[in-house]
Amino acid sequence: MNKVLVVGSINMDLVAQVGQYPRLGETLLGQSFATYHGGKGANQAVAAARLGAQVTMIGRVGDDAFGRELTSALKNEGINTDWIKVSPATASGIAMITLAGSDNAIIVVPGANACLSPADIEAAESSFADADVVIAQLETPLATIRKAAELAQRHHKPFILNPAPAMRLDDALLDQVALLTPNEFELGMALGLPESEWRQALQQSPGKILMTAGSDGAWYCDAAGVLQQQRSFKVTALDTTGAGDTFNGALVAFWDLGLPEASRMACAAAALSVTKAGAQGGMPSKAQLLDFLAAQGGAA
């Protein structure tokens, strides 16, 4: 059972369904409203925990009802929340999501996530020493991510970076990353390259980039410089929210199996996740994943 350390964001998603978007100054009656536990860090932690990993999370929530609910939910998933700190007089991070037909409009307010500091990471150094693998995203301050990469390197732990939301990354940080897990757009942004050059980017960094490609699965370059594709699994999709986070959580949960097998498990878990609603709602257990793979004949 891998010991996974997640450094990242914790949000409450507030989702309203409407028939059409309101015009400026207009009030419309909505069709439904729901709250979901989210944040890329929390999502990836939940995905890994459900698949059998021993997960610890470093993050921040506000001193409010959302913060207490979000932390309690992570504990209920078996995640160690000792390093999730409360930011006084600060609201927990939220995402306001308006759904109209197949379109959505989202406002993210980082709240306490923006308060996660390099000092918080230093204080949790023992968790780096204890981990088998460390994963982070980019919904918390970049200085904090740099510190996490530094501590992972100090303790000789692989540092996995899911570069979302997309931004340009400097060479110093990239050099500390054992594996980058972008989609095609995020890869171009992270490296400052046109999206059309993703194949060259993978070939120039064998074993260091695993690019997700939705229904096309995932791509990486092996040690011999040969481009490899892990194909996706065919399912009927209900809600694709959180599929990328499920992929990343599964990847670190099965990290010890090596990149080819871990990416296969990650693609299968991501496929299962889109068959149910909500970012965390569809994340499978290990038993569900193994049953799914058995039904598929063990292959994509």
Output the structural class: alpha/beta
- Count of helix runs: 11
Spell out the CATH superfamily.
Ribokinase
Mean pLDDT, rounded to whole units?
A: 94
Low-confidence stretches: none
Write a structural description.
This protein is an alpha/beta fold and 300 residues long. The protein has one domain (3-10, 39-92, 112-295): Ribokinase (UDP-N-acetylmuramoyl-L-alanine:D-glutamate ligase), CATH 3.40.1190.20. Helix content is 35%, strand content 24%. The chain has 11 helices and 13 strands. The protein has helices at residues 40-50, 65-76, 118-123, 125-130, 142-154, 171-175, 184-191, 198-204, 243-253, 259-273, 286-295, and strands at 3-7, 11-18, 32-38, 54-62, 80-87, 93-100, 103-109, 133-136, 159-161, 179-180, 210-212, 218-221, 227-230. The strands form 3 sheets. Strands 5-4-1-8-9-10 form a 6-stranded parallel sheet, sandwiched between helices. Strands 3-2-6-7 form a 4-stranded mixed sheet. A 3-stranded antiparallel sheet has the order 11-12-13. Helix 9 (243-253) runs antiparallel to helix 10. It is globular. The two termini are 24 Å apart. The model has no long low-confidence stretch (mean pLDDT 94).
